[in-house]
Inverse folding.
């Protein structure tokens, strides 16, 4: 998963890893944790990942852009951490580590047992977790919201700008209360020349109503 | 089954995740590797819960999963915001906050 170049394949590998881990949880008699692992992680969180990878467009990329020192030292560091953890876990004189675990009592790890613990002994942690979920949901919405002013205004204008023939527009523009943005670059519109009535064609009787300023280019 | 085996597997998962966080420069993959590290810790917690026969370790594993989900949500929101500003998706390039 770490050495895959495409983030999409990394996500798929992580899904496989999570499902295998759920099987290990089942072997450890943690049924509720295994079910939550499959539903929450492999279901919800990974769908979120797949959506973001598809949105960002994860193409094939180099493994790392860091220097050679980073490339060589990081795996060495990881191997050292793994060796140290194994020594720390297995080298201790804990009796349970070498055994098969405690005697299994009926109902250990079932949703009934976990739920009772959550609502009695660990009620405070449960409530804190719910508040944390709410805060993170609100934070994600605020972070990923489409904001005005985030991208340059010109691009938004260009994206929604439709060249309109002259003498069509909103009433606000006709009344002169709403002017197009002064800094907006003039967009080349092909049909502008023939649609725009010249001063001679409009005649003296139409000239009175003609606004004195430049003709509006169809603001919105 | 031998409890120590689960602990060795969890240590290996944690180390692979740490290596990924150090090596990769794409924030998406770094978040994935963080998930890997949290899952290694989760496996150790559940293994210890089985070892002592108490369900408190499983409760803690569930809380860790909730925290991981929150972290992923906020992290992916940040990545989407970065992508929308057309900044490079690379943690080495995003160094404007560096003093």
């Amino acid at each position: 998963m770490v050495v895959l170049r495409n983030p999409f394949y990394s996500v798929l590998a992580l899904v496989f890893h999570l499902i295998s881990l759920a099987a290990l949880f089942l072997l450890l008699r943690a049924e509720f944790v295994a079910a939550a692992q499959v539903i929450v992680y492999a279901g919800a969180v990974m769908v979120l990942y797949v959506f973001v990878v598809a949105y960002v467009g994860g193409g094939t990329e180099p493994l790392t852009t860091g220097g050679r020192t980073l490339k060589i030292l990081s795996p060495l560091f990881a191997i050292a951490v793994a060796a140290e953890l194994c020594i720390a876990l297995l080298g201790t004189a804990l009796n349970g580590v070498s055994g098969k675990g405690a005697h299994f009592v009926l109902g250990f790890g079932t949703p009934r047992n976990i739920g009772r613990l959550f609502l009695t002994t660990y009620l405070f942690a449960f409530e804190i977790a719910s508040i944390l979920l709410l805060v993170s949901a609100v934070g994600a919405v605020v972070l990923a919201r489409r904001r005005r002013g985030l991208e340059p205004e010109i691009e938004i204008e260009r994206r929604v700008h439709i060249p309109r023939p002259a003498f069509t527009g909103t009433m606000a523009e006709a009344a002169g209360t709403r002017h197009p943005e002064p800094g907006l670059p003039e967009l080349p519109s092909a049909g502008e020349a023939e649609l725009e009535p010249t001063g001679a064609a409009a005649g003296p009787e139409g000239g009175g109503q003609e606004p004195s300023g430049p003709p509006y280019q169809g603001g919105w | 089954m031998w409890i120590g085996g689960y602990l060795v597997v969890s240590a290996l998962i944690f180390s692979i995740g740490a290596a990924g966080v150090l090596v990769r420069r794409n924030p998406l993959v770094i978040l994935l590797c963080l998930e890997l590290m949290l899952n290694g810790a989760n496996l150790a917690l559940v293994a210890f819960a089985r070892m002592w026969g108490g369900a408190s370790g499983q409760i803690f594993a569930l809380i860790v999963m909730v925290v991981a989900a929150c972290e992923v949500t906020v992290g992916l929101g940040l990545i989407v915001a970065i992508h929308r500003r057309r900044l490079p998706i690379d943690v080495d390039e995003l160094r404007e906050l560096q003093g």
